[in-house]
Amino acid sequence: MREVANKHIVVVGAARSGLAVASLLKRKGADVFVTDHGAIAHSVKKKLTTLDIDFEENGHTTKAEGGAFLAISPGVPTEAPLVQKYLNSGKEVYSEIEIASWFNKSPIVAVTGSNGKTTVTNWLDHTWKKASRDHITGGNIGYAFSDKVDQTSENSEALLEVSSFQLDHIDSFHPHISVLLNITADHLDRYNHDFSSYAKSKFRIIENQTGNDWFIYNYDDPTITEYVYSLKKKEEGPRLLPFSTDEDLSEANGAFIRNQNIILKINKQEEVLMPTRDVNLSGKHNLSNGLATALAARASEIKSDAIRESLRTFEGVEHRLELVRTVNGVKYINDSKATNINAVWYALDSFDVPMTIILGGRDKGNDYSELVNQIQEKVHTIIAIGEAQPMIEEQLKSIVPNFKTAKDMNNAVRSAKEVAKRGEVVLLSPACSSFDMYDNYEHRGNEFKKAVNRL
Which purpose does this protein serve, as stated in its record (predicted)? Predict the structure, then answer.
């Protein structure tokens, strides 16, 4: 544990994780100052005042430059001037999960990836509950790690969703089990549109792992397997547990499919866990997520009965292929969490009926042409919203019978109702971030659900 008592520490970014790490540092005896480039929410200011934490908003004064180190929120880019001042002066910049880990007592199970990490982290939580195992769940979802770290103990586990932004500024963050689900082009606007830089951030999850730890990874992802091949040449590093829905991995440890059964193999002990048809969530991507969940549970010595029960009963997460309502035989699906092209591809792959799709928001450097084959096969109407409308229109308008634009979600849903027929699906799967029109993807998804429920 690092000593922070009596140190002056600056926190940049006053959203959920910024408030959480400021509160943690205050509890540990630090003198904390919070600064934000924009306005701070009234509820956050009230909380900071209650905690006797000084703060500033709508810009950074020289008061923000005097910290022993800078605690950075995931929403603040490394290129921000204040962050650069700290780095250029030789001072450290740490993420919230890094700082929280200094006070952690539990083995960490950390999940990252471009898509599916929220689903898998919640699935792990469900599994641990089925096994009656003490744990905390948080990180990039629900509660920040800093909010929960005081509840950790040697007899429990910390189940954490971690993003590339959080991994960018770690130093000693050390998962016992790390899970890397996939790496696809996402958030490239934060990495100078350099895919390799983004991928390197994801791989930092194993940076501090040793031979006593586990690295669970997607064998079907070529970016990941290429890196793992180079990793195998090194003597030190975590034990490897690949998972695959496409390949038989019986020559190695891991999880795979054989004769429509899920096979788990760890320490050369092979087990037929259950038929794939018994996994509650549909779609190949969810089968892949289930394999990752099962491996993490088995590496944590959770018994097979609890793993099977979890895979049979987990119902998914809000805003990820969530059935909102069926209206006149048309299913309305909320997939607001699909903020990149790959997530939309998986969403389209999950249905075999004609569809209307609502796309758009704040563009992240997307190449929408990657969706052409899926859209031509399944989609008759695209409704574009938000700042990305022109890019979507340019790349996709010519390949569908109907292309519409909408000024807001209510208008988009009404337009979808006009063209969708019984037995079809209306899918909100934006491929973009939400910040042009909404606070976050949850806000966007909730507005979609409100609009559907008004039909």
Answer: Cell wall formation. Catalyzes the addition of glutamate to the nucleotide precursor UDP-N-acetylmuramoyl-L-alanine (UMA).
pLDDT over 90 percentage in the chain: 82
User: What tokens appear for 29 in the block?
Assistant: 């005896």
58-94 burial by CB neighbour count: b if 16+ within 10 A, else e?
eebeeebeebebbbbbbbbeeeeebbeebeeeeeebb
Separation of alpha carbons 125 and 137, rounded Å = 7
342 is known to lie in a ligand binding site: no
Check the annotation: does 118 bind a ligand: yes
pLDDT(187) > 60: no
60 and 15 housed in the same domain:
yes
* pLDDT tens by residue, 159-183: 999 988 899 999 999 999 999 999 8
Provide the domain limits for residue 21. Answer: 8-91
The model's pLDDT over 1-20, given as tens digits with 9 standing for 90+, comes to: 689 999 999 999 999 999 99
Q: Answer yes or no: is 90 a known binding residue.
A: no
Same domain, 115 and 246: yes
* 105 annotated as a binding-site residue: no
Residues 289 and 228 in one domain: yes
3 falls within a domain? no
Q: How far is CA 346 from CA 37, 38, 342, 370, in A?
A: 36, 35, 6, 12
- Say if residue 121 carries a ligand binding annotation: no
Instruction: Give φ, ψ of 438 to 5 degrees.
Output: -135, 165
pLDDT in tens, 409-432: 999 999 999 999 999 999 999 999
| pTM of the shown model | 0.84
Q: In this structure, what CATH number is given to the domain that contains residue 388?
A: 3.90.190.20
Residues 248, 159, single domain; the answer is yes
142 is known to lie in a ligand binding site: no
Which residue among 258, 279, 313 closes a domain?
313
> Is 113 annotated as belonging to a binding site?
yes
Domain contains 2: no
Average pLDDT over residues 221-233: 84
